[in-house]
Amino acid sequence: NYLARLGWSHGDMEVFSDAEAMAVFSLEGINRAPARFDFKKLESLSGSHMARAEDGALMEEVDAFLAATGGAPIAGAARERFRSALPACKPRAKSIPQLLEQARFALLERPVLPDEAAAKALDPVSRGILNGLTPQLHNASWERGTLEAAVSAVAEAHGTTLGKLAGPIRAALAGRTVTPSVFDMMLVLGREETLARLGDSLERQG
């Protein structure tokens, strides 16, 4: 897609497949001006294609990337979680490495060790709130709206907000403070894994 646009254009068509380019390509569309290779433009275009890629095809691209770069293949339960994380993560990534970083939480095995910033987010007050959240999640139906309501209710009961409580939850589930939505992570991980990671965090920090 990007190479075709170096020196050629068709109206305002920016994002297209090979078949679409073949259908409209003509020599008249080639420009006389010299082409300039713009890595930021290439990255942006890559992100557009990644966002609209089918999950199965994107999974094959990830497998090929890991094989080519000597990375460990994604297998077992981590593979199932990673595949489930693609709809939430691929719109936020512009390359395979960025996608792997976005979905890192799905690839982790327990126990999840927090980085320095995440460890600070799990202070005694936050651990106390997470301890109160755990039984609510045990009984909640595992749907986004229900999870949001449960977390919001616990945050309000402790005089804080959902936004402020999201940091400790991210730290417990992903070991980091910058992640996809906590509810996307909960849905990908499932009830058992989510509660287990929260439990591990409370036990380790307690």
In N-to-C order, the SSE pattern is HHHHHHHHHHHH
Described by the principal axes of the CA atoms, the overall outline is elongated
How many separate helices? 12
Summarize the amount of helix as a percent range: 55-70%
Number of E strands: 0
Low-confidence stretches: none
**Which structural class is indicated by helix and strand composition?**
mainly alpha
Mean model confidence by pLDDT:
93
Q: Hey, roughly how much beta strand do the residues contain?
A: under 5%
Largest sheet: none
Radius of gyration: 22 Å
How far from one another are the termini? 53 Å
Architecture overview:
Helices cover 67% and strands 0% of the residues. The longest helix is centred in the last third of the chain and has 24 residues, at 182-205. It has 206 residues and is mainly alpha-helical. The radius of gyration is 22 Å and the shape is elongated. Helix 5 (76-89) crosses helix 12, helix 9 packs across helix 12 and helix 11 (162-174) packs across helix 12. The model has no long low-confidence stretch (mean pLDDT 93). The chain has helices at residues 2-5, 18-24, 39-52, 55-69, 76-89, 96-102, 104-107, 116-121, 124-139, 144-157, 162-174, 182-205. 22% of the residues are buried.
